[in-house]
Amino acid sequence: MSVLDKIPKLEKFCFCLDVKPGVLYFSVGLVVLWILYLISVLVYGGRIGGIIWGIIWCCAGLLTYGLVVFTLWKGKSRNLLIPAVVVSVFNVCVGVINAIINFV
Question: Does the global pTM surpass 0.85?
Answer without folding.
Answer: no
